[in-house]
Amino acid sequence: MTKYPMSKQVLGFFGWLSICFATAALGALASAQAGSFYKALIRPLWAPPGWLFGPVWTVLYIMMAISAWLIWREYGLRKAGPELALFVFQLAVNALWTWLFFVWHLGALAFAEILFLWLLIIATAIMFWRRNRFAGALLIPYLAWVSFASVLTWAVWKSNPHILA
Residue 162 in 3-state DSSP? Predict the structure, then answer.
């Protein structure tokens, strides 16, 4: 078990929070014009309103940052390098989805990509769970939301072939 002084633990927490919110910022950049695009799409009746996505993702990114921080704090980069590298990789894949869907209007690719993200989240959660059960459990709401978003992506893509390739 790695023991960091409190000051380094605090800096580490803000580092992981920064990494997660950098992902959020990349998504926000891609979705700057998403509101009107989302409203123009044919959506299933169960699709959430556009304003809900921001608050949900904010909570999820905070939970993801705490999860990664717990693993880093307990094991450090040397002992938990593969777990933390996978975490960062899945964040990059997470950020890509918004560009595929909202900027490039590639529905099929966005759907395939979100399924890949789903698998990466499962792998990350399992790896984290093996190190720290609470850290792994913190990723379960993220997995649940991406599961829902996967079904929504498919439904919207299939309902809008004229807009989403």
Answer: coil
Write the pLDDT tens digit of every residue in 21-62.
999 999 999 888 888 899 999 999 999 998 999 999 999 999
Residue 160's pLDDT is what? 98
- Chain position carrying tokens 């695009």: 37
Answer whether CATH 1.20.140.20 is correct for domain 6-159: no
| Of residues 147, 148, 152, the one with CA closest to residue 121 | 147
Tell me which amino acid residue 88 is. Answer: V
Are 110 and 157 within 8 A, CB to CB? yes
Residue type, 104: W
* Boundaries of every domain in the chain: 6-159
What predicted TM-score, i.e. pTM, was given to this entire model? 0.95
Give the three-class secondary structure for 132: coil
The DSSP annotation for 55-94 comes to HHHHHHHHHHHHHHHHHHHHHHHHHSHHHHHHHHHHHHHH
Number of helical H runs and strand E runs in the chain: 7, 0
Would the CA dihedral through 48, 51, 54, 56 be positive or negative?
Answer: negative
